[in-house]
Design brief:
Length: 216
Amino acid sequence: MPRKGYNEGCLAAHALDLIGDRWALLVLRELMLGPKRFGALKGGLPGIATNVLTQRLGDLESAGLLTRRTLPPPASVQVYDLTAAGRDTRGIIDALCVWGVRQPGHDPRKFISPTALMLSMGAMVAPPAAGQSQMAFVMGADCFATTLSPQGFDARPCADGPPRDMPTLVTVNANVMAAVVYGPAPLTQVQAQGLVTLSGDLDPSQRFLDAFELRR
C-alpha cells in the first residue's frame, strides 16, 4: 500500500513525509556516527519490532536518506549507512535533544543507546574557550574516541578499541555512563562505587566531564 502523507506544500510537512514515521528518526540517530549491521541497529533500538525496522530501513532508503553496502573482506557483511541527506538530519536530532531536556517527564533510567548518549553529549556540551582534550568511552561492545574543543564535541567509533594515548572511561552500559557524564557526583565517587573504571589521569578527565550538563 502507498505510504500516507500530509499532502501539503508546507516544507515542514514535506520533511515529516520523509522522516515522520514512528522510529524513522531514531533509526537515523543510530546511524549518525557510522554504518551498522541490522543486528547492531536492533540492539540500539530494543523497542522496535524486527519487521518494523525492516520497513523503516526500506522507507528511508527509498527516500534517499540511507544506503546499503557490503563491507570488504574479511567482514563481507551488509551494513546500512547514511547518505549526505541522512547525515543532514543531525541538526534535527540535536534540536530535539535541546528542546526535550526542557520538558517535564524525562526519565533517564529508561534505555539509552551508546550512540544516543554520544549525540546528546554533543547537544549538551559547553565548549571550552581554548584548548583541546580527548577521551575514549567504552560501553559494552561500543567504543567511541571523542574530542572536546572550542568547536564542540566530536565522537567517532573506534572499532579496534580505545586509542592508547587517550584516557578511557569504561562501564557496562550507556545508562550508567550517562549517570557518570551528567550526574552531580564527582568521578572519584562513581569510581569508588564501581560504576566506572578510568584509564588516565583523574583531574583532566574530571574537567572533560564537567563540560557536559543537562541544562534545563
